[in-house]
Amino acid sequence: MTPDQVAAAAAAQRPLVQRLLDGVAEIGADPPGITRDAFGPGENRAMALLAETARNLGLECSTDAGANLSMRWPGTDPAAPPLLIGSHLDSVVQGGNFDGAAGVIGGLAAIAALRTLGLRPRADVEVLALRCEEAVWFGLGLVGSRCLLARLPPGALELRHARSGLTLGESIAACGGDPARLAQGTPLRDPHRLGAYLELHIEQAPQLLEADVPLAVCLANPGNIRHPRIRIRGEDAHTGLPRRFRRDAALAGAEFALALERLWREEEEAGRPMAVTIGRFHTLPDRHAMTVVPGQFEMSLDLRAYDAAHLTVLEARLHAIAADIAASRGVAIELGERSAAAPGRMDPKIMAGLADAMERLGLPPVRLNSPGSHDANNFAAAGVPTGMLLIRNENGSHNPQEAMETADLMAAISVLSLWLAERACAPA
Q1: Beta partners for 292?
Q2: Degrees (nearest 5) of the Cα angle 249, 328, 265?
Q3: Helices marked H in 175-219 — which ranges?
Q4: N or C: which end of the chain has fewer CB within 10 A?
Q5: How far is CA 170 from CA 80, 132, 162, 173, 270, in A?
Q6: How high is the pLDDT of residue 427?
Q7: CATH class of 3-222+343-427
Q8: What torsion, rounded to 10 degrees, do the Cα atoms 353, 357, 360, 365 define?
C-alpha cells in the first residue's frame, strides 16, 4: 500500500469529517461559542452521533464503567494488544468546536479510509470517546482516562458537577457507567495489554500558525498541579487604617500572583519551561466594598511543567512563597483542595513513525511540546506507548474563536492512516 493510495483514501473521507464536525457543532451550539457539558446532554448527544456513525462504518460499540465509548474495528488476532485512538467530546462553557472532537472524528475517519482500501488490522483498533476531559465541570480533568486507568484521586466520585449538581459517581451512573466498579481502584483495561494510544488534538498555542505548517508530532504534554480555591484570610478594616496595621488579603493575593510570575520568568530563563495560570482572582462579592480593607480573598492556580521532578520542585517553591507572604503580611494562605496530572512523554518509536509518515506524505516533520495536558498524559503515565499529532489552530482554544481548518485535520488523518496501515494492517 503506497502513501499516495492511503492519502487518497483519507482525503475521500472529508465529507464524513465535515458532516461530523457540523453535527457536534449543532449539538453544542451556545452562541457565541460551543458548550458540550460533560455527562450532560451536550456530551451525551455527541457520543450518540459518533456511535451511530461508527456502527454504520461496521464498528462495534460499547461503553465501560466510566461511561466512555469504545468504537472497535475487530482485528484478526484477538490476543494481540489493541491500538487505541482517542480524545474527548465535552467542551468548556462557550468554547470552540474542535478541542477534543477533532481527535475522535479523525480516528473514525482513519478507520473508514483503511476499510475502503480493503485492509484489516491484526489487533483491534479502537476509537475512544473519553468522558469529561475538561476540568470546568468537576474541578478535575481527564476524568474518562482516569476512570479507564484507575487514576481517579481519593474522593473524586463525590465531586459535584458545576451545572447539574450531581456527584461524579451519580453522573457516571446516569450515563450507564458503574461507579461502584470504579471505586475498586483497579484499571478497566490493563495498561500492559494495550499496544498504543494515539491522539489527534488541536494545538492550543500559535506555534504551528507561526511556523506556517499544518501539524506537528507532539514531544510531550505538561503535567499540572491545580488548586481550584485558594483562600487568603486577613482582617477586614477601615480604609484609613495605616499600612503597618493592615492584614490586607487582596494585596497578599496580588503579591502571591506576582511572585509566581517571577518564578515562571526565572524558570523560563533557565531553560525549564512551565506555566502559571490564575483563572479566578477576587474579593468576596457579599463582603467587598470600596471602603473596607478586604479580609478575605480567593484565587485559583494551575501550575504546569513537562517533567515530574520539575513539578515537585515547583510545588515546594509554591508552598515556600505562600508561607513567606503569609508571615510578612499577617494573613493565612490556605491552598485548599489539590488535583494533579502527570506529565506525558511521548513514545520515541511512535514519534519516529509519525514523523516518517509525515515526510513520506510531503509534510515537514515538525516536533513540538504541547502547552496543554490531555488524556494522552494518563496513558503515558500508565506505561502505554503514546503518541500525539498537534493540528494547527488559530486563536488558541477554550474560546469561541477556535479556528481549525478542515484541510489541516485531513492532513493529520492521512498521517494517522498511513501509520496505522503500516503498523497494524494487512490486505483483508
Answers
A1: 238
A2: 85
A3: 179-183, 207-211
A4: C
A5: 35, 14, 13, 5, 46
A6: 66
A7: alpha beta
A8: -80
Bond into 343 cis (ω within 30): no
Residue 384 DSSP one-character state: -
On whether the CB atoms of residues 389 and 354 are closer than 8 A, the answer is yes
Q: How far apart are CA 121 and CA 422, in angstroms?
A: 10
Question: What is the distance between the alpha carbons of residues 2 and 185, in angstroms, rounded to a whole number?
Answer: 45
Q: State the pairing for strand pair 83-88/125-130.
A: parallel
The rounded average pLDDT for each run of 10 residues, N- to C-terminus, in the chain (428 residues) is 95 99 97 97 99 98 99 96 98 97 99 96 98 95 98 96 98 98 98 98 93 97 95 98 98 99 98 96 95 98 96 98 99 96 94 98 96 94 97 91 96 98 80
**What would the DSSP string read from start to end of 281-343?**
EEE-TTT--TTEE-SEEEEEEEEEES-HHHHHHHHHHHHHHHHHHHHHHT-EEE----EEE--
Q: In the chain, which segments carry CATH 3.30.70.360?
A: 223-341
Alpha carbons 177 and 114: distance in angstroms, whole number: 31
Contact present, 350 and 220 (Cβ < 8 Å): no
Distance CA 191, CA 385 (A): 9
Task: Please list the residues that pair with 299 across neighbouring strands.
Answer: 230, 281
CATH fold label, 223-341:
Alpha-Beta Plaits (3.30.70)
Q: Tell me 225's DSSP state.
A: E
pLDDT of residue 342: 86
Please tell me the distance from the alpha carbon of residue 98 to that of residue 305, in angstroms, as a whole number. Answer: 24
> pTM of the entire structure?
0.89
Q: What per-residue confidence (pLDDT) applies to 395?
A: 85
Q: Would you state the cell numbers that stand for residue 412, as one nine-digit string?
A: 493529520
